[in-house]
Amino acid sequence: MEIKSLKDWGLSPQQPFVIAGPCSVETPEQLDKTVSALVKNGIDMIRGGVWKPRTRPNSFEGVGSIALPWIKEVKEKYGVKFAIEVASPFHVEEALRFGIDMLWVGARSTVNPFTVQEIANSLKGVDVPVLVKNPVNPDLALWIGALERINHAGITRLGAIHRGFSNFNDTVYRNSPTWQIPLELRTRYPQIPLINDPSHISGKRDLIPHIAQMALDLNFDGLIIESHIDPDQAWSDAAQQLKPEALAELIGQLHTRLVSVDNPVFESQLEIIREHIDEVDREILEALSRRMRLVEKAGEYKKMNNVAIFQMERWKKVFETRPEWARALQVNPEFVKELFQLIHTESIKKQEEIMGVAFYSEEKKK
Ligand SMILES: O=C(O)C(=O)C[C@]1(C(=O)O)C=C[C@@H](O)C=C1
Q1: 310 lines ligand 1 (CB under 6 A)
Q2: How many separate helices (H) and strands (E) can be counted in the chain?
Q3: Nearest C-alpha to atom 11 of ligand 1 is from which residue?
Q4: Looking at the domain 264-365, which fold is it?
Q5: Using only C-alpha atoms, what is the Rg of the chain?
Q6: Span 93-133, pLDDT tens digits
Q7: Residue 236 in contact with residue 59, Cβ under 8 Å?
Q8: Could you report how far apart the first and last alpha carbons of the chain are, in Å?
Q9: Nearest CA owner, ligand 1 atom 6
Q10: Separation of 178 CA from ligand 1 center, angstroms?
Q11: Whole-number Å distance between alpha carbons of 104 and 161
């Protein structure tokens, strides 16, 4: 994909790059007051929802096209740039008609290649920056596919927004961050600017600073954060919006990190640490290999005695004790639980192969 670096997008060189504004544009007064306060706090790229894709019917679905002249007015009055979500060719046409500066494709549109293609077709021959939110489901291929469709329409000022992934029972986050997905996108397409959306990941304002800092620690290029002049009275997403002053305070506290430093001492020290990490990784793999050989032995033994692979009591014991051992060793027990679930699945696969081989060879004998 041919994509322009964020510094060539013609935006202000804020560090970090921040897009902020209300979840929804509600009234001319709310918009004016919010934008005025954001501008005072140094924000010059505003976001605002005009058409809102809501999960349930009868929720507020955005004021629609009547917001566009209000946006045009604040853009002129305060000299700011404005980004909105588009979910159809009609939205694109309306947005461009009113001089909207940046568009984004929402998570519920990214999941649908038909919708993304229609949006892409309506962008042919237009030079506007477009950001593509991750799909609601944790599917990197779908996210990349949407970026490719928009890119093939000729959009080179193209970026990705990480807004987290729907979950059934994550009690902490509204949308699980599942950081490995945006990091994999970055690894495969380092040229695509990556913007983090801590508002939609957290769903609550208290968690926003932690997620925003984590994104900067992971070298994201920018943040998109919801901010409303009076969050508690917001018509949508009241719990996750910040007052403009709170947003400014948050930005002031964030630490931006460097990709690397031109410092030979740092480089050589890091190299030494990495060599140790290589050694430890090898030890981990050797230990895993030894465990697998034992699991195979257990599998052979089960086969000889016609015993089932899955041993619930033993597995319960393994699953209980390993996180405890981990805690004593200052390793995150939750991580170790996931790790052992993976290991157990692999053990079962191995033992199934062992049982299967017997089945096939006996079949052959017949
Ligand atoms: O203890 C066994 O029976 C094993 O085969 C080992 C093992 C494991 O990986 O720890 C694998 C499968 C069983 O469900 C329980 C435990």
Answers
A1: yes
A2: 13, 8
A3: 347
A4: Chorismate Mutase Domain, subunit A (1.20.59)
A5: 25
A6: 999 999 999 999 999 999 999 999 999 999 999 999 999 99
A7: yes
A8: 56
A9: 295
A10: 29
A11: 9
Task: Write down the pLDDT at residue 56.
Answer: 81
Residue 202, SS3 per DSSP: helix
CATH architecture of the domain 6-253 equals: Alpha-Beta Barrel (3.20)
pLDDT, tens digit (0-9, with 9 covering 90-100), for 235-287? 988 999 999 999 999 999 999 888 788 889 999 999 999 999 999 999 999 99
Spatial CA neighbour of 212 closest among 186, 203, 204, 220: 220
Pocket lining: 108 vs ligand 1, CB cutoff 6 Å: no
SS3 readout for 176-238:
ECCCHHHHHHHHHCCCCCEEECHHHHHCCHHHHHHHHHHHHHCCCCEEEEEECCCHHHCCCCH
SS3 category, 208: helix
- Measured CA to CA, the distance from residue 291 to residue 279 in angstroms comes to 18
For ligand 1, atom 3, the nearest C-alpha belongs to: 311
What is the per-residue pLDDT for 262? Answer: 87
Ramachandran category for residue 254: left, alpha or beta (phi over 0 → left; psi -120 to 50 → alpha):
beta
Residue 94 is predicted with a pLDDT of 97
Q: Which residue ranges in the chain fall short of pLDDT 70?
A: 170, 357-366
CATH 1.20.59.10 positions along the chain are 264-365
Nearest atom (ligand 1) to Cα of 310: 14
Cα–Cα dist 113/110, whole Å: 7
Token pair listed for 350: 């191995």
Domain with CATH 3.20.20.70 in the chain: 6-253
The interface predicted TM-score of the complex, written ipTM, equals 0.97
